[in-house]
Write a structure and sequence with these properties.
CATH superfamily of chain A: Nucleoside Triphosphate Pyrophosphohydrolase
Shape of chain A: elongated
CATH architecture of chain A: Alpha-Beta Complex
Helix content of chain A: 25-40%
Mean pLDDT of chain A: 88
Distance between the termini of chain A: 54 Å
Radius of gyration of chain A: 22 Å
Low-confidence stretches of chain A: 232-244
CATH class of chain A: Alpha Beta
Oligomer: homodimer
């Protein structure tokens, strides 16, 4: 065997041993699950089960299992907690300051999810799991407030360019509902005429020739997201066109 | 002590024990370090030191240390490998399929970095570290090709909206160089007049009233990035204005 290759093999051997010191971290996933109800943007939280955070709310998450891909874990968490499959989920970032978890070194990867609160398969059975209005959340367990804010920032960026917002709505919706939802996410009031013009330009919607009923205002037209844009899986957004 | 609080404490205790099974993962960081030279976009690679990947190139990375924040590790790697401090670095995502690393369960967090290849403090001492033209890279060790592509995608998205591209250029540059760089990153040819109009609209540059010298073409004006936009640290991009 050539000396060079032998040297490499030896290096690899010795590295394997010294690296054993490093295999003592746990990885969790945390999900920021957004929903929309009564004109309010909400997230799903659970009472923390750690004594250190007694009575504090935390994100829905779990440690990843030895035989589980990182990106599979949040789907499992969502399924367990809400009964939903095929939800929209996207990785946002990983958080790993040294002392963020009282049980040891735990690095967490955060995902954001958009679900329709009224989805017929939605089943929340745990008494400790509740929807909270984003605006009212002052504090969370761990660094979950910071994680929530990073996910909210990502959501705000994405709803402007990509047709992801529709994951939060029922299949049929009015432009009034859509505008309410954009306003709740972006935290600003939008001009009605201007909003409708911009949405029309995006060419995301099909007019389904039905009207709202049972509403306390003049019934509006109903729309659906165009079929070819429907995708509950994380959107593989194509590279932006060069707008430079 | 109230029963409820006691129950919580007990749950926390038992969880701590069962969770020990999970503390057996290692975390690494991998850096996709972009540079620009002779009209080509390049990345810095190192010969893999693992026998499994003998003679393959890999990203520059390392395991995170027990007393090191996740987001500090890539700065350490950059400093060790290039001599550079204060580089532009941004977290892109974490990669964690079960069998991605031959030494055990290793999840890696990827960062992209933009550096000026001609930086006077740049010092690459390791013989196994080299710049490679992106276009020529067919294969890398581990899942590093996939990681490189995710970072390239992020780079392409960001250079359009945020003034990050200037981290790849010397302090003074011509619009011709800037256009060459955009073309190398986006992989498309841009119209010269249109490009200059769009760049002017962004209001990123100061005309410093100097001309190129020693160039094989008609000397162009030199520009600098506006001082208030200079920021080698990861840009905290503000939430996008609501363009809806």
């Amino acid at each position: 065997m050539p000396t060079e290759a032998l040297k490499k093999l030896k290096t690899a051997e010795s590295e394997k041993i010294s690296h054993l010191d490093y295999f003592n971290i746990a990885i969790s996933v945390d999900c920021v699950i957004f929903g929309f109800e009564k004109k309010e943007l909400k997230i799903l939280l659970i009472k923390s089960d750690l004594a250190e955070f007694a009575n504090k709310w935390s994100l829905l998450g779990d440690f990843i299992k030895p035989a589980e891909d990182l990106d599979s874990a949040p789907y499992r968490v969502l399924k367990q907690r809400t009964g939903l499959n095929d939800v929209f989920l996207q990785q946002v970032g990983s958080f790993g300051t040294i002392n963020r978890h009282p049980s040891g070194r735990v690095i967490t990867t955060a995902y954001y999810s958009l679900i329709n609160i009224k989805h017929h398969q939605m089943k929340i059975t745990d008494n400790e799991v509740h929807w909270h209005m984003i605006e009212t959340i002052k504090e969370l367990a761990f660094d979950h407030k910071q994680i929530m804010e990073a996910c909210l920032k990502r959501l705000r960026e994405q709803v402007v360019d990509e047709p992801v917002i529709f994951n939060l709505l029922p299949e049929k919706f009015s432009l009034r509902e859509l505008q309410d939802l954009y306003q709740a996410i972006l935290g600003i009031k939008l001009d009605r005429r201007n909003f409708r013009k911009k949405i029309a330009m995006k060419n995301w919607l099909d007019d389904i020739d039905e009207m709202e009923d049972d509403v306390p205002h003049r019934p509006g037209k109903l729309y659906k997201l165009k079929t070819d844009l429907k995708n509950n899986k994380p959107l593989k957004s194509s590279v932006k066109k060069a707008k430079v």
